[in-house]
TrEMBL record:
The lineage of its organism: Bacteria, Pseudomonadati, Pseudomonadota, Alphaproteobacteria, Hyphomicrobiales. It is found in: Cytoplasm. It comes from Ensifer oleiphilus. Mg(2+) binds at E260. Its main location: cytoplasm. This is Phenylalanine--tRNA ligase alpha subunit.
Length: 360
Protein backbone atom coordinates (compact mmCIF):
# COMPACT_ATOMS: atom_id res chain seq x y z
CA UNK A 1 0.00 0.00 0.00
CA UNK A 2 1.43 3.35 -1.04
CA UNK A 3 2.05 6.29 1.27
CA UNK A 4 -0.84 8.28 -0.22
CA UNK A 5 -3.32 5.41 0.22
CA UNK A 6 -2.26 5.01 3.85
CA UNK A 7 -2.69 8.75 4.46
CA UNK A 8 -6.10 8.70 2.77
CA UNK A 9 -7.35 5.86 4.94
CA UNK A 10 -6.07 7.53 8.07
CA UNK A 11 -7.68 10.88 7.25
CA UNK A 12 -10.98 9.31 6.20
CA UNK A 13 -11.02 7.31 9.45
CA UNK A 14 -10.38 10.51 11.42
CA UNK A 15 -13.20 12.24 9.54
CA UNK A 16 -15.65 9.43 10.31
CA UNK A 17 -14.61 9.46 13.96
CA UNK A 18 -15.18 13.21 14.39
CA UNK A 19 -18.16 13.61 16.73
CA UNK A 20 -18.76 17.36 16.54
CA UNK A 21 -17.98 20.40 14.43
CA UNK A 22 -14.92 21.22 16.54
CA UNK A 23 -13.39 17.78 15.90
CA UNK A 24 -14.01 17.86 12.17
CA UNK A 25 -12.42 21.31 12.00
CA UNK A 26 -9.32 19.96 13.72
CA UNK A 27 -9.10 17.18 11.11
CA UNK A 28 -9.46 19.74 8.30
CA UNK A 29 -6.66 21.88 9.69
CA UNK A 30 -4.46 18.80 10.20
CA UNK A 31 -4.93 17.74 6.58
CA UNK A 32 -5.57 20.89 4.54
CA UNK A 33 -4.31 23.65 6.77
CA UNK A 34 -1.21 25.70 6.07
CA UNK A 35 0.97 23.04 7.67
CA UNK A 36 -1.38 20.12 7.11
CA UNK A 37 -0.23 16.72 5.89
CA UNK A 38 -1.68 17.13 2.38
CA UNK A 39 -0.46 20.73 2.15
CA UNK A 40 3.08 19.55 2.98
CA UNK A 41 2.89 16.99 0.16
CA UNK A 42 1.82 19.71 -2.28
CA UNK A 43 4.90 21.71 -1.33
CA UNK A 44 7.14 18.89 -2.61
CA UNK A 45 5.85 19.24 -6.17
CA UNK A 46 8.39 21.98 -6.88
CA UNK A 47 11.31 19.61 -6.35
CA UNK A 48 10.02 16.95 -8.77
CA UNK A 49 10.79 16.45 -12.42
CA UNK A 50 8.02 17.23 -14.91
CA UNK A 51 7.26 13.55 -15.38
CA UNK A 52 7.06 12.92 -11.59
CA UNK A 53 5.00 16.03 -11.08
CA UNK A 54 2.49 14.92 -13.69
CA UNK A 55 1.92 11.60 -11.98
CA UNK A 56 2.55 12.46 -8.31
CA UNK A 57 0.74 15.80 -8.55
CA UNK A 58 -2.41 14.22 -9.93
CA UNK A 59 -2.45 11.67 -7.08
CA UNK A 60 -1.94 14.32 -4.35
CA UNK A 61 -4.65 16.59 -5.84
CA UNK A 62 -7.03 13.62 -6.04
CA UNK A 63 -6.31 12.90 -2.34
CA UNK A 64 -6.95 16.55 -1.49
CA UNK A 65 -10.28 16.51 -3.35
CA UNK A 66 -11.37 13.25 -1.67
CA UNK A 67 -10.51 14.48 1.82
CA UNK A 68 -12.11 17.91 1.25
CA UNK A 69 -15.34 16.32 -0.01
CA UNK A 70 -15.38 13.92 2.94
CA UNK A 71 -14.87 16.77 5.40
CA UNK A 72 -17.68 18.82 3.79
CA UNK A 73 -20.06 15.86 3.91
CA UNK A 74 -19.17 15.13 7.55
CA UNK A 75 -19.65 18.78 8.54
CA UNK A 76 -23.10 18.80 6.98
CA UNK A 77 -24.03 15.57 8.75
CA UNK A 78 -22.77 16.88 12.10
CA UNK A 79 -24.69 20.12 11.63
CA UNK A 80 -27.91 18.23 10.91
CA UNK A 81 -27.27 16.02 13.93
CA UNK A 82 -26.73 19.05 16.18
CA UNK A 83 -29.99 20.62 15.00
CA UNK A 84 -31.87 17.37 15.60
CA UNK A 85 -30.44 17.07 19.11
CA UNK A 86 -31.32 20.68 19.91
CA UNK A 87 -34.87 20.24 18.65
CA UNK A 88 -35.24 17.13 20.81
CA UNK A 89 -33.78 18.93 23.83
CA UNK A 90 -35.81 22.13 23.44
CA UNK A 91 -39.08 20.59 22.43
CA UNK A 92 -42.31 22.31 23.54
CA UNK A 93 -45.44 20.36 24.34
CA UNK A 94 -48.04 22.45 22.52
CA UNK A 95 -50.84 20.46 24.16
CA UNK A 96 -50.01 22.09 27.53
CA UNK A 97 -51.93 25.29 28.44
CA UNK A 98 -49.98 28.52 28.10
CA UNK A 99 -48.69 29.77 31.44
CA UNK A 100 -50.25 33.13 32.17
CA UNK A 101 -48.09 36.15 32.95
CA UNK A 102 -47.88 37.68 36.45
CA UNK A 103 -50.06 40.55 35.25
CA UNK A 104 -52.72 38.01 34.24
CA UNK A 105 -52.48 35.95 37.44
CA UNK A 106 -52.39 38.88 39.86
CA UNK A 107 -55.56 40.38 41.28
CA UNK A 108 -56.51 43.76 42.74
CA UNK A 109 -58.34 43.52 46.08
CA UNK A 110 -62.00 44.61 45.81
CA UNK A 111 -61.44 47.42 48.33
CA UNK A 112 -58.63 48.87 46.21
CA UNK A 113 -60.90 48.56 43.17
CA UNK A 114 -63.76 50.33 44.98
CA UNK A 115 -61.46 53.19 45.99
CA UNK A 116 -60.36 53.57 42.35
CA UNK A 117 -63.98 53.54 41.18
CA UNK A 118 -65.04 56.18 43.70
CA UNK A 119 -61.99 58.30 42.86
CA UNK A 120 -62.91 58.17 39.16
CA UNK A 121 -66.50 59.25 39.89
CA UNK A 122 -65.78 62.12 42.25
CA UNK A 123 -62.69 63.17 40.34
CA UNK A 124 -64.96 63.78 37.36
CA UNK A 125 -67.07 66.05 39.61
CA UNK A 126 -64.05 68.13 40.59
CA UNK A 127 -63.24 66.54 43.95
CA UNK A 128 -59.73 65.83 45.20
CA UNK A 129 -58.51 63.16 47.62
CA UNK A 130 -57.55 64.03 51.21
CA UNK A 131 -55.84 61.75 53.73
CA UNK A 132 -54.99 61.80 57.41
CA UNK A 133 -53.37 59.68 60.15
CA UNK A 134 -54.95 56.49 61.47
CA UNK A 135 -53.90 57.39 65.03
CA UNK A 136 -55.75 60.50 66.13
CA UNK A 137 -56.07 62.73 69.15
CA UNK A 138 -59.29 62.92 71.11
CA UNK A 139 -59.67 66.50 69.87
CA UNK A 140 -59.71 65.69 66.13
CA UNK A 141 -61.64 62.43 66.50
CA UNK A 142 -64.35 63.71 68.88
CA UNK A 143 -64.18 67.24 70.29
CA UNK A 144 -63.65 69.15 67.02
CA UNK A 145 -66.50 67.14 65.48
CA UNK A 146 -68.97 68.29 68.14
CA UNK A 147 -69.08 65.05 70.15
CA UNK A 148 -70.16 66.08 73.64
CA UNK A 149 -68.54 64.74 76.78
CA UNK A 150 -70.12 61.42 77.77
CA UNK A 151 -71.10 60.52 74.20
CA UNK A 152 -71.26 56.68 73.82
CA UNK A 153 -68.68 56.76 71.02
CA UNK A 154 -66.10 57.96 73.54
CA UNK A 155 -66.51 54.87 75.69
CA UNK A 156 -64.13 51.89 75.78
CA UNK A 157 -66.72 49.48 74.39
CA UNK A 158 -66.69 51.25 71.02
CA UNK A 159 -63.28 52.92 70.60
CA UNK A 160 -59.72 51.60 70.67
CA UNK A 161 -57.81 53.82 73.12
CA UNK A 162 -54.04 53.93 73.56
CA UNK A 163 -52.35 54.20 76.94
CA UNK A 164 -51.79 57.70 78.28
CA UNK A 165 -48.69 59.49 77.02
CA UNK A 166 -46.35 61.73 79.00
CA UNK A 167 -48.89 64.56 78.85
CA UNK A 168 -51.69 62.39 80.17
CA UNK A 169 -53.43 62.29 76.77
CA UNK A 170 -54.88 59.12 75.30
CA UNK A 171 -54.80 58.86 71.54
CA UNK A 172 -57.23 56.64 69.64
CA UNK A 173 -57.44 54.61 66.47
CA UNK A 174 -59.76 56.86 64.50
CA UNK A 175 -63.35 55.67 64.55
CA UNK A 176 -64.18 57.48 61.27
CA UNK A 177 -62.38 59.44 58.58
CA UNK A 178 -64.08 62.69 59.67
CA UNK A 179 -60.98 64.08 61.48
CA UNK A 180 -59.56 64.73 58.02
CA UNK A 181 -62.39 67.23 57.48
CA UNK A 182 -61.09 69.36 60.37
CA UNK A 183 -57.46 69.05 59.24
CA UNK A 184 -58.42 70.07 55.69
CA UNK A 185 -60.43 73.11 56.83
CA UNK A 186 -57.50 74.19 58.99
CA UNK A 187 -55.03 73.91 56.09
CA UNK A 188 -57.12 74.98 53.09
CA UNK A 189 -59.29 77.97 52.32
CA UNK A 190 -62.76 77.39 50.83
CA UNK A 191 -64.07 76.37 48.41
CA UNK A 192 -63.34 72.80 49.54
CA UNK A 193 -64.36 69.69 47.63
CA UNK A 194 -62.70 66.53 48.93
CA UNK A 195 -63.31 62.83 49.38
CA UNK A 196 -61.57 60.93 52.16
CA UNK A 197 -61.09 57.16 51.71
CA UNK A 198 -59.30 55.32 54.49
CA UNK A 199 -59.19 52.76 57.29
CA UNK A 200 -61.22 53.16 60.48
CA UNK A 201 -61.42 51.13 63.68
CA UNK A 202 -64.19 50.13 66.09
CA UNK A 203 -64.69 47.27 68.51
CA UNK A 204 -67.20 45.27 66.50
CA UNK A 205 -66.93 41.97 64.62
CA UNK A 206 -69.48 39.76 62.82
CA UNK A 207 -70.50 38.88 59.27
CA UNK A 208 -71.19 42.54 58.41
CA UNK A 209 -68.78 44.31 60.83
CA UNK A 210 -65.01 44.23 61.30
CA UNK A 211 -62.72 45.83 63.94
CA UNK A 212 -60.87 47.46 61.05
CA UNK A 213 -62.96 48.57 58.11
CA UNK A 214 -62.90 51.14 55.33
CA UNK A 215 -64.87 54.33 54.91
CA UNK A 216 -65.13 57.09 52.38
CA UNK A 217 -66.66 60.43 53.08
CA UNK A 218 -66.95 63.67 51.24
CA UNK A 219 -66.91 67.32 52.25
CA UNK A 220 -68.00 70.42 50.37
CA UNK A 221 -67.58 73.86 51.91
CA UNK A 222 -68.31 77.16 50.22
CA UNK A 223 -70.70 80.10 50.54
CA UNK A 224 -73.66 78.54 48.75
CA UNK A 225 -73.58 74.77 49.51
CA UNK A 226 -77.06 73.41 50.27
CA UNK A 227 -79.08 70.22 50.60
CA UNK A 228 -80.12 70.31 46.93
CA UNK A 229 -76.45 70.30 45.88
CA UNK A 230 -75.80 67.39 48.23
CA UNK A 231 -78.71 65.38 46.88
CA UNK A 232 -77.55 65.87 43.28
CA UNK A 233 -73.98 64.80 44.13
CA UNK A 234 -75.18 61.66 45.90
CA UNK A 235 -77.63 60.71 43.16
CA UNK A 236 -74.98 61.12 40.46
CA UNK A 237 -72.53 59.09 42.51
CA UNK A 238 -74.97 56.22 43.07
CA UNK A 239 -75.95 56.08 39.40
CA UNK A 240 -72.32 55.95 38.32
CA UNK A 241 -71.15 53.57 41.05
CA UNK A 242 -73.95 51.00 40.67
CA UNK A 243 -73.87 51.52 36.88
CA UNK A 244 -77.60 52.12 36.46
CA UNK A 245 -79.49 54.77 34.48
CA UNK A 246 -81.49 56.09 37.43
CA UNK A 247 -81.83 55.76 41.19
CA UNK A 248 -84.64 56.70 43.51
CA UNK A 249 -83.43 57.99 46.87
CA UNK A 250 -85.17 59.01 50.06
CA UNK A 251 -83.72 61.10 52.86
CA UNK A 252 -84.81 60.23 56.40
CA UNK A 253 -84.13 62.62 59.31
CA UNK A 254 -81.41 61.34 61.60
CA UNK A 255 -78.80 62.61 64.05
CA UNK A 256 -75.04 62.94 63.79
CA UNK A 257 -73.08 65.23 66.11
CA UNK A 258 -71.17 66.81 63.24
CA UNK A 259 -74.09 67.65 60.88
CA UNK A 260 -77.33 69.59 61.27
CA UNK A 261 -79.72 68.73 59.72
CA UNK A 262 -78.67 65.08 59.35
CA UNK A 263 -80.10 62.38 57.09
CA UNK A 264 -79.97 58.66 56.48
CA UNK A 265 -80.16 57.94 52.75
CA UNK A 266 -82.01 54.93 51.33
CA UNK A 267 -81.92 53.70 47.73
CA UNK A 268 -84.82 51.93 46.06
CA UNK A 269 -83.85 48.38 45.09
CA UNK A 270 -85.03 44.86 44.34
CA UNK A 271 -84.08 42.26 46.96
CA UNK A 272 -86.25 39.42 45.63
CA UNK A 273 -83.26 37.48 44.25
CA UNK A 274 -79.83 36.48 45.53
CA UNK A 275 -78.32 39.81 44.39
CA UNK A 276 -79.53 43.27 45.33
CA UNK A 277 -80.48 45.23 42.20
CA UNK A 278 -80.54 49.00 42.30
CA UNK A 279 -82.58 51.24 40.03
CA UNK A 280 -85.60 48.91 40.16
CA UNK A 281 -87.93 47.14 42.57
CA UNK A 282 -89.96 48.36 45.55
CA UNK A 283 -87.60 47.66 48.46
CA UNK A 284 -85.38 50.19 50.23
CA UNK A 285 -81.84 49.87 51.54
CA UNK A 286 -79.87 52.29 53.66
CA UNK A 287 -76.68 53.26 51.86
CA UNK A 288 -75.08 56.22 53.67
CA UNK A 289 -75.42 59.07 56.12
CA UNK A 290 -75.13 62.76 55.31
CA UNK A 291 -76.06 66.27 56.36
CA UNK A 292 -75.14 69.94 56.45
CA UNK A 293 -71.90 70.58 58.34
CA UNK A 294 -72.65 71.70 61.90
CA UNK A 295 -71.64 75.33 62.64
CA UNK A 296 -69.52 74.12 65.57
CA UNK A 297 -67.51 71.90 63.19
CA UNK A 298 -66.93 74.84 60.85
CA UNK A 299 -65.70 76.88 63.80
CA UNK A 300 -63.34 74.04 64.82
CA UNK A 301 -61.91 74.15 61.30
CA UNK A 302 -61.28 77.88 61.60
CA UNK A 303 -64.19 78.98 59.38
CA UNK A 304 -66.97 81.45 60.08
CA UNK A 305 -70.36 79.65 59.87
CA UNK A 306 -72.03 83.01 59.12
CA UNK A 307 -69.99 83.18 55.91
CA UNK A 308 -69.50 79.55 54.93
CA UNK A 309 -71.65 76.45 54.94
CA UNK A 310 -71.09 72.94 53.73
CA UNK A 311 -72.36 69.40 53.47
CA UNK A 312 -70.76 66.05 54.17
CA UNK A 313 -71.56 62.40 53.75
CA UNK A 314 -70.00 59.07 54.62
CA UNK A 315 -70.38 55.38 53.80
CA UNK A 316 -68.65 52.06 54.38
CA UNK A 317 -66.49 50.96 51.47
CA UNK A 318 -66.67 47.31 52.49
CA UNK A 319 -70.45 47.42 52.63
CA UNK A 320 -70.99 49.03 49.23
CA UNK A 321 -68.48 46.57 47.75
CA UNK A 322 -70.56 43.72 49.18
CA UNK A 323 -73.74 45.23 47.73
CA UNK A 324 -72.30 45.85 44.27
CA UNK A 325 -70.42 42.59 43.80
CA UNK A 326 -72.55 40.17 45.83
CA UNK A 327 -70.05 39.30 48.58
CA UNK A 328 -71.87 37.60 51.47
CA UNK A 329 -69.42 37.93 54.37
CA UNK A 330 -67.31 40.93 55.32
CA UNK A 331 -64.76 38.76 57.14
CA UNK A 332 -63.63 37.25 53.82
CA UNK A 333 -62.16 40.65 52.91
CA UNK A 334 -59.42 40.12 55.50
CA UNK A 335 -58.78 36.35 55.33
CA UNK A 336 -56.14 36.54 52.56
CA UNK A 337 -57.68 33.51 50.82
CA UNK A 338 -56.18 33.25 47.34
CA UNK A 339 -59.25 31.41 46.05
CA UNK A 340 -61.50 34.26 47.19
CA UNK A 341 -59.15 36.79 45.57
CA UNK A 342 -59.13 34.86 42.29
CA UNK A 343 -62.93 34.92 42.29
CA UNK A 344 -63.66 38.46 43.47
CA UNK A 345 -60.40 40.25 42.57
CA UNK A 346 -59.88 42.49 39.56
CA UNK A 347 -57.27 42.52 36.82
CA UNK A 348 -54.47 44.91 37.77
CA UNK A 349 -54.28 46.72 34.42
CA UNK A 350 -58.04 47.30 34.02
CA UNK A 351 -58.30 50.78 35.53
CA UNK A 352 -61.88 51.98 36.19
CA UNK A 353 -62.98 54.96 34.12
CA UNK A 354 -66.34 56.60 33.57
CA UNK A 355 -66.09 56.29 29.78
CA UNK A 356 -64.67 52.74 29.73
CA UNK A 357 -66.68 51.26 32.61
CA UNK A 358 -65.95 51.16 36.31
CA UNK A 359 -65.86 47.38 36.73
CA UNK A 360 -65.18 46.31 33.13
Amino acid sequence: MSELETLERTLLADIDAAGDEGSIEAVRIGALGKKGSISELLKTLGTMTPEERQTRGAQINALKTTVADAITARKSALKDLAIAERLARETVDISLPVRSSPAERGRIHPISQIVDEITAIFGDMGFSIAEGPDIETDYYNFTALNFPEGHPAREMHDTFFFNEDDKGERKVLRTHTSPVQIRTMEAQDPPIRIIIPGKTYRQDSDATHSPMFHQVEGLVVDKSANVANMRWVLEEFCKAFFEVDKVTMRFRPSFFPFTEPSFEVDIQCDRSGPIVKFGEGTDWMEILGCGMVHPNVLRSGGLDPDEYQGFAWGMGLDRIAMLKYGMPDLRDFFNADVRWMNHYGFRPLDMPTLFGGLSA
